[in-house]
Amino acid sequence: MAPPASIGSDGVVTGPGAGKAEVAHAKLGVAGVEIQFEIGKHAHLAVAETSFSVADGEKLILLGPSGCGKSTLLKAIGGFIRPSRGEILLDGIPVREPGPDRMLIFQEFGQLFPWKTIEGNIVHALRAVRGCSAGEARDIAARHLEMVGLLPDRHFYPHTISGGMKQRVAIARALAVDPAVLLMDEPFGALDAQTREVLQRELNQLWAKTRKTIVFVTHAIDEAVRLGERIIVLTAGPGRIKAVFANPCAESYLADFEGDPAGAAELRKEIRGLLEQRPARGIGG
Amino acid sequence: MPVPSVPASRPPARGRGLNFGLRQAIIVAAGLVLWQVLVQVSGVSPLLVPSPLAVVRKFMEHLGNGELLAYTQATLQILVSGVGLGILVALVMTGLSVVIRPIRDVVVTAAAMMNPLPAIAVLPLALLWFGIGPGAVIFVVVNSVVWAMALNANVGFETVPVQLRWVGLNLGLRRWRLIRDVYLPASLPYILTGIRIAWAYGWRTVIAAELVFGALGSQGGLGWMIMIERYNLNTDSVFAGLGSIIVIGLAVEWLFNLIERVTVRKWGMTSTG
Fold first, then answer.
1. By CB neighbour count within 10 A (0-12 exposed, 13-18 middle, 19+ buried), where does A266 fall?
2. Considering only alpha carbons, which residue of chain A is nearest residue B177?
3. Which of A126, A202, B47, B243 is deepest in the core (most CB within 10 A)?
């Protein structure tokens, strides 16, 4: 599971057909995916041909500025957007539509059903996905609410709880369904700075416990370095992979989230340097 | 860990001093007293304007001998079946238009065309098709309800937040289950508004139909009662009939408020909650 050493910024992984065999055998494979949108009569290339793979139990970060297509790519993995070219493979099988094997968590707080309590939201998800009995669903829900520290609040309705609590519930619901991959689209982006840090730490703790495969999208370099085992840096216009980093600080942050491990500052600086470069125009896409 | 905010605070009182309900009661009582005084002082003929006391006496008399209940029951029977059927048809149409997109265009176009037509205008046609009887009135009520309801439900379905729709899809819900678990509850504020409007249209249509065409079927309703009593110059009974219509309207309004309080307002789904 040890990720490869840092690959330079020369786009090693972006070539057509790169790592086809690797992609096919990974937990999640993005194989030559290209995403185009029709805006009026014009085709807009949101994501240029992109390939990468995610190992089982890996926590991968897609990092890039707004408009780099990272969120679009995540939604394509979720099955909500169909790539114009290429394939997304889950355990080697192409994904065609959204499904509970890839639970997506949004940035927006409005992802809980307001007519169901905290517990009710999770119970509903469990019953919809697994068809388990109400009692069994409540037991599983209680276990996952315990994990995010919300068991005492389970009878509240979503509109009465804070944004941080809502995101915790969304995470608990997604984990309760036990997806193959957890997709997180800037889930802490709308939180205040303090709450964001608390939830980042909690996510690291949850991941240390569950080793769930996670693809996490963010535009914040700091967040990427603190959360990512591996970081894929994307650039905009159109979105393409600029570099892939194995994060040398991942284990340190799992053990001590507040710490300042060796290499973190350098990694942040290197990524910042990459993102500040003007995107190369006229090459390919 | 953040502490949950106080659940659903009470809506602010609509003014200072006495509570609004009490103030309204005082206004109604004052109006009744003024009416009584004016009738006595002016000496107007009770055939034109009876005193409120006479109206109340008549109301109790009709209530006592069961006439009023029978009339009310006749009206409500037609109304409830018409409104209920109309709501059901509208919801099925809206649900189908989520699953099959072309149906949406048909429903929206038909609703836009039929909605401005006062429902009662269709009654002559309904009489031709269904003959003189409750069938014709129910048809008219369904027609008055279904389009307003379909338009509202459609707006509700169209404005279901994308996150909720995607969560439903993510959980593997499709078609009927997606509609039942996500679309219907998410658009409940619009559906309740639609039911309110549907009820109001249906109520007006039934009374109007009874007034114009008399007793449709074996037993007349409240509109019929008002017509008959006018014919017999029992003006106090006419007023008693009108009073009953107001009372029923208020009761239904109260019921709607109750339903909203235990659903959409409890869930924080209204802007006024």
1. exposed
2. A128
3. A126
